[in-house]
Amino acid sequence: MYDIAVVGAGASGIVAAITAKRAYSKLSVLLIDALPKIGKKILATGNGRCNITNLKADGKSYNTKAVSSVIQTVSPEKVIEFFSSIGLECIADNESRIYPMSNTAASVLDCLRFEIERLGIEVLNDTKVTSVNKRNDCFVINDNIECRKVIVTTGGKAAPSQGSDGSGYALLKAFGHSVTHLYPGLVQLTVKENLKFLKGVKVKASVCLKSTSGKVLDKSVGEVLFADYGLSGIAVMDISRSVKDKNCICVLDILPDLSKESVIDFILKAKERNPSLLFEDALCGILPRKVGYLIIKNSGFNQDIRMNALKHNDIVRFVENMKNCSFTVKGTKGFENAQITIGGVDFSEFNQKTLESNKVNGLYCAGEILDVDAVCGGFNLQWAWSSGIVAGTYSALELIR
Description:
It is a single chain. The chain has helices at 11-23, 40-44, 68-73, 76-85, 105-119, 168-173, 234-239, 260-273, 279-282, 289-298, 312-323, 379-400; strands at residues 2-7, 29-32, 53-54, 90-92, 97-100, 122-124, 132-135, 138-141, 145-152, 183-185, 189-191, 202-211, 216-226, 230-232, 248-253, 325-332, 340-342, 363-365. The strands form four sheets. Strands 1, 2, 6, 7, 8, 9 and 18 form a seven-stranded mixed sheet that branches. It has a six-stranded antiparallel β-barrel with strand order 11-14-13-12-15-16. The chain has three domains: 2-183 and 339-400, 3-Layer(bba) Sandwich (FAD/NAD(P)-binding domain); 184-256 and 326-332, Elongation Factor Tu (Ef-tu), domain 3; 260-324, Helicase, Ruva Protein, domain 3 (Orthogonal Bundle), CATH 1.10.8. Strand 4 and strand 5 form a beta hairpin. The protein is elongated. By secondary structure, it is α+β, with helices and mostly antiparallel strands. It is 31% helix and 22% strand.
């Protein structure tokens, strides 16, 4: 019989176990995971650097303001303090994103592992949890592990190769909890157009996702990466949550920092300076060459058109196409390539302060399994840490009162 069992050893599960054990050292805490080693998904975050949190994270950063109590209780500053307490120092970049000072995700996981070992938390790897039942006042996991409290932190469906296969939803459904529709989030988009010649090209762009009827579904600004299958980059991944099952158009403003008038003026000056220059060459001062070629092609010009052949209306048409470069979205690259899951277990069915189930006493949830998500930049990991700490804290307090 354990006091607390944590099902799922990702970011939220690990900190939940640590926090519970720290609350009262005599509590027996068990951390269960299906993979051979804990925290695999942490290693992939932030492109291997682990964007731990973001100083701007607050209740308004997420798809539901109901998370405000949890984020206020365990703020980004509190998360930084937690990591400092286990020997990991952090630094901020110019966009308020927080990274480990070592600049490697491995350091984050190592420090968490060392704290688990120091506290004497029992870890059970290679163990797939297929059932959690409640019998009288205790829970029974896989028919052979008993505990007084259970925290489910199995994650969503994103990146199943890293342990998130969606199996946790069935565990919660068995207790009467609702699960929303699930979609891949923070994921690349596939498009109808052939962009193979643009593969690897990056631009800063304003991104607007529209329905086929023209309704704006989502917006973002930032890096866009062209790929052979379509579009990637932070700005594209941020709006991917709104694709879902819809037929969409992704519209890019390739030069968001310049007005139409400024671009027209740039082209007119280039034409005056060197009338015989190829239009494609004249654009090298403001656009990657391949992107310039794309807009020239979309505007109906031949690739070998020269500046002296351009009329004012031609220039205006080109700039309009550059400011409204449209791609037909076929879909996303799926859960296999997604960073997060859009949707999850209905958050309203849990106490918004303690993360205990409103349906089953002693059952807690934290992390991505709940219907909580945000854009890139450390916000989703902030939710993982803060919700894990809250669930770990309150599950322990209930036992030591």
